[in-house]
Amino acid sequence: MMTLRVSKKRKMASLFILAVLLVTACKCDESQEEIATPQEMPIEEDPNNVYVSPQVKGDVCYLAEHFDSGNINVFKSRWKKSEAKKEDVDEDIAKYDGEWNIEAAVENALNGDLALVLKSKAKHHAVSAFLDRPFRFSAKTPLIIQYDVRFQEGMECGGAYIKLLSEQQSPGLHLEQFQDKTPYTIMFGPDKCGNEFKLHFIFRYENPKTKVTEEKHMSLDSADAFKHIFTDKFSHLLTLTLEPDSRFELSLDQTVIKSGSLLNDFKPPVIPPMEIDDPDDKKPEDWDDRAKIPDPEARKSQKTEKIPDPEAVKPDAWLDDEPTYIPDPHAEKPADWDVELDGEWEAPLIENPRCQPGCGEWKAPMIVNPKFKGKWHAPQIENPNYKGIWTPRKIPNPEHFDDPNPFQNLAPISAIGLELWSMSNNIMFDNFLITSDSEVATQFAAETWLKKKTKERSGFASSDSVIDYLYKSANQNSWLWIVYALAIVLPITCCVSYVLSKPKSKKKKHRPQPSSTGGEEHDRNAASATRDQLEAPEDERSKGDHVSAAEKKATKSEVGGSFSGKGDLETVEDNEDEEEEEEAEGDDLEPEGEGEADEDGLQSGDELVSEEDGDANGSSRANASVDEPAQPRKRRSRKD
């Protein structure tokens, strides 16, 4: 009954899980139809996240561009594509021929939201527009620069930064000639190539003494705070705030990732050092800047790497006066030898046959010197003439100046431009804002980027994995979290309950085993008795079929004990079942007059099994087997 109940519970749980999964699949199919891509069907917007093009008015705004008009003529009237050429590059790639377009996002776009999109790969792009009015740096007006960017295809190598172009008095700024050499005041935005990630903040500052303009680069220790923007394919908000006291804050998605001062956090520093090295100062020839020198009194050790073997002995047969090589006595002068042309003829030299074991001066063989310590170097000692590290003398820096607030001295800004090279396309730029009011910037972001963020994080994309799909579905429909929990918990609960309610297997009964010697002897006797019975006539074999059940039981117990796990025994449960069947059949087949013999056989069998001594048990069974050969037992199936 317990097994039946558990089985029913498992079936009911399986049916419930299957029903839950079917409902989930239906819901997901409906959701999939609802979130089809913008090219296939319109998207139903969340009533709490409806996009309306922002409107910014007032004197605090210098540029507010959201590109939502969709009119390409309006865009071209304000934004000018560059017709210039880059300098110092090949003619094939010198042109700014990259394409721009005004369009919606490829996936999860807000209705009515358009953006400026970089469309070409491996090309130079340049486009720019004038501000509503120039921004002039002063002691009372902060500067806030804000825009959002989205790498819809990721980024392999390229930039997505903007340049705030400097105002030019004469001959003036011509946007059609905008290029990489065009003067700018601030450059701000992300850049990536390979595993190198950058978030630029560069400003150009003119030295009031030398009138030389120099770029100052912000120092950023790590890219961990922003490098994800190149791969996650979401819109990200970039904000740069410059205060009149030269403090700055750089934020990503309204989170500050860098703050500091224009005076201290840029390289090279804005203010040059007060003193510099004298370029005319030269190091004296007798200046000794060696702290330590080799000891002049140290002597090199005379121990060499190899030495003559001191144990070598000159052989007695060594011939000191015999030459090692002698002229070949069998050599003959060639017949065509010309003394005038070839010179005096000499026989070739051969080894002296008498030099056994050797001739000439004897030298002991060389062996490795056990006392050799390697190449010798003189030890180092303090240099008595050491004067220290020489440095040129310092002189006042003619370029030094003091500017406690460089913000106020930056060049005025009159235009915004994008001058980029990229190996990726479909880069979206949107919601450019230049203002002096932080509340305006916050409100502008809430009406634009925050709505994008909500849509993109909750919407579905073609690149989403199954896990992303399930996660976003649950965020949109909170009841799905309960379904997910049930789909995980119920199978685990069923498995655990099945394991705990599984009936324990019946333990095997262990019978005492006879000694190996008695078992082997009994095997031989049983085999011999089997052969004798098979060779006997039919009438004698037929008598063996009437063996009493008691004798069979006794014989079986002996045989079962003698085999002792040799592979011919069945399991204990099967043996017990067969014993019961054989006893029942033996009662029906048992002839009259054999009851006493059966009882004697049972008694003798019981006596054999109950022996406590292993050796005595084995020997007694062996003797019994010799006196009464075991009869072969007829196999019966459970059906019989």
Helix content range: 25-40%
Overall pLDDT confidence: 77
| Helix vs. strand class | alpha+beta
Q: Report the uncertain regions.
A: 28-44, 538-573, 584-629
Q: How many strands?
A: 25
Task: Give the end-to-end Cα distance, rounded to a whole number of Å.
Answer: 29 Å
Strand content bin: 15-25%
Radius of gyration: 52 Å
CA-based shape: extended
Q: How many helices? A: 13
State the assembly state of the protein chains.
single chain
Question: Would you kindly provide a written description of the structure presented here, covering whatever features stand out?
Answer:
Helices cover 29% and strands 22% of the residues. It is built from 13 helices and 25 strands. Strands 2, 5, 7, 8, 9, 10, 11, 15 and 24 form a nine-stranded antiparallel β-sheet that branches. Strands 1, 3, 4, 6, 12, 13, 14 and 25 form an eight-stranded antiparallel β-sheet that branches. A two-stranded antiparallel sheet has the order 16-23. Helix 8 packs parallel to helix 13. The radius of gyration is 52 Å and the shape is extended. About 15% of the residues have low confidence.
Brief digest:
By secondary structure, this protein is of the alpha+beta class. Helices cover 29% and strands 22% of the residues. It contains 13 helices and 25 strands.
Question: What descriptors fit this protein?
Answer:
alpha+beta; eight-stranded antiparallel sheet; 13 helices; extended; 640 residues; nine-stranded antiparallel sheet; 25 strands; 29% helix
